[in-house]
Recover the amino acids of this structure.
């Protein structure tokens, strides 16, 4: 299996485990019924290893044979990475650490929807910052393999995971 396919498989696995844990909690409340106020910590322990392996693999992606892009695009990649970081930090500041890590679904942190800042224009600004980061990495590293992660990220995070998380926020806060 190539490094790209391994990276994409781990991404899908990590997103699937995270989405599954959140969906199970929303549908049945199983984790909080079984583990009480420690359910969120269990959720974090379940999802963190997959995300950490994905981060390691994606950081190593540029060292393997890539799909070359023009080197002239590197400055644009740095600019897009900067925009991605700014959007992520702005979103994190509005959500807080608990909601960023799904704590609101497990009884930790605020549950009301955020309607200010980038949330006025974007449904999932945190996930949109990841899309921008993968585009920025593709251009900065001159490696089109990262563009496949843009597509995968959009499907897994914006469409699937985002819809599950947004349903929880909308039903709790409104």
């Amino acid at each position: 299996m190539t490094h790209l396919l391994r990276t994409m498989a781990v991404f899908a696995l990590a997103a699937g485990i995270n989405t599954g844990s959140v969906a199970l909690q929303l549908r049945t409340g199983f984790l909080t019924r079984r583990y009480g106020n420690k359910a969120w910590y269990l959720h974090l322990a379940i999802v963190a290893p997959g995300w950490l392996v994905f981060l390691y693999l994606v950081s190593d992606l540029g060292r393997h044979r890539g799909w070359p892009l023009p080197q002239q695009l590197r400055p644009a990649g740095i600019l897009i990475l900067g925009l991605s970081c700014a959007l992520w930090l702005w979103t994190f500041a509005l959500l807080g650490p608990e909601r960023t890590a799904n704590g609101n679904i497990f009884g930790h942190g605020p549950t009301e929807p955020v309607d200010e800042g980038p949330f006025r224009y974007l449904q999932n600004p945190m996930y949109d910052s990841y899309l921008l980061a993968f585009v920025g990495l593709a251009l900065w590293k001159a490696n089109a393999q990262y563009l496949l992660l843009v597509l995968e990220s959009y499907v897994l995070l914006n469409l699937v995971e985002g819809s599950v998380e947004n349903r929880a926020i909308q039903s709790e806060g409104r």
